[in-house]
Amino acid sequence: MAIQCSLVLGLLILASSLAWTEPVVAASFNRSSFPAGFIFGTASASHQYEGAAKEGGRGPSIWDTFSHKYPGLSLS
What we know:
Layout: H1 2-19, H2 46-49, H3 62-69
């Protein structure tokens, strides 16, 4: 029982010491932080948005149908 109390007390002390640490401030970034000619871009994948076919009353999307009909085909 004494070991359990010591462990709990130690964890409480550790948690409280972490709560008093100074927050880390991230450096600000802007366009001049990147090299000349750097181009920003974005991308997404349909499975990130479409996913979970047959869940919650959903049916397969066009992409689900296409990817099952042509499993080896890549559109890159």
